[in-house]
Structure formats: structure tokens, C-alpha cells
Amino acid sequence: MSQNNLLKSYRPNVGVVLFNRTGCVWYGQRVGDLTKTSADHDGQRWQMPQGGIDSGEDIEAAAFRELKEETGVVSARLLILTPGWLAYDFPPEYRKRNWKGQRQKWAAMVFEGDDAEIDLEADDHQEFDDWRWGELEEAPLLIVPFKRKIYDELVTAFTPLRNFLRESDARSSDRKSR
Pairing mode, if any, of strands 101-111 and 10-19? Predict the structure, then answer.
């Protein structure tokens, strides 16, 4: 069976790793709880913006749409999309419709606005009730266990980009202080 046939049972999804100018990552705390995923995961309610890709929707457009719906952010620039799909299975008690899990493309973006732009109530369906900036390496510890492998892969994939952003910010700060 081809990879494309295998992925058909996974819901198409896009996620956004939103970096600020200093290389920190945006994390949102999901509304409600995740008690239907068996254990108490209250401390693991933090995640990056993500959501379904509409039928026929361009992946880049879906990433910007999800970012705006979940955070209110429109002042962002796309840096890169992950090649290929990253997939995870839903736990049995967390099934969504008939999907086995989700297959995701991830967009790394840099936030070019001010924190005041962030509005968790930007959409009628609020996903997050709190937010913060944090380190990229925190991601796997903040997310529910069934998504952890994806977040481990994101840390590996985007650490060089984060380091580049930090070096660029430091050079920019040095030029301004002269």
C-alpha cells in the first residue's frame, strides 16, 4: 500500500510554529480539559496553533487562516513549510469522526506585530484561554502525549531556524546600540 493510501485515513491538518523576533515560540493553553484522553493532562494543555485544512484549500492559506482564527495574529511572515506529512494516531477514546489520526504540514512563521495584536477571542470558536512565549524545546513537555512525537520532530527541524532568528536579532540589536 502506498504512503498516500495510508495517509487517506488521517485528517489533513496544518500547524504553525510562531516565532517572535527573539526566537521564542507562541504557546496557547487549550480551552477546557482533555479528560477524555484517559489521564489528567491539565499541565499538557499547551500547544501551538493547528487545525484542519479545508477541501481544496492551499496549505499556506490554511496556516494563515488557522493562525488568525486561533490567535488573532495577521502580522506574520511565512519562513518555511515542512516537506512531507507528519502523522499521529488519535487515542481510541479521542476519535474524531472516522479519522485514524491527523497528518500535518507545519509552517514556521515569524511574528512581526506587537503582543497586543494577539486576541484569543478573534473567532467564534475559541481554542485557547491563555497564551505565552516560551522556548522551542519546551514543546514536547507541554503537549498531550499522543502528539509528543510530532513536537519532538518540530524541535529537531526548527532549532536551526530558531538559532538563526536569535543570531539575527542579536546582530540587529548590536547595530542599533552603536
Answer: parallel
Domains and CATH numbers, the chain: 3-177 (3.90.79.10)
Q: What is the pLDDT of residues 87-146, one digit of tens each?
A: 999 998 876 678 899 999 999 999 999 999 999 999 999 999 999 999 999 999 999 999
Phi/psi of residue 78, nearest 5 degrees: -70, 130
Residue 109 DSSP code = E
Query: 138: exposed, middle or buried (C-beta count within 10 Å: 0-12, 13-18, 19+)?
Result: middle
For the chain, helix (H) and strand (E) counts, in that order, are 4, 8
Closest CA relative to residue 165, chosen from 19, 56, 9: 19
User: Is 101:86 a contact under the CB 8 Å cutoff?
Assistant: no
**pTM flag (> 0.85):** yes
- Backbone phi, psi, residue 116, to 5°: -65, -20
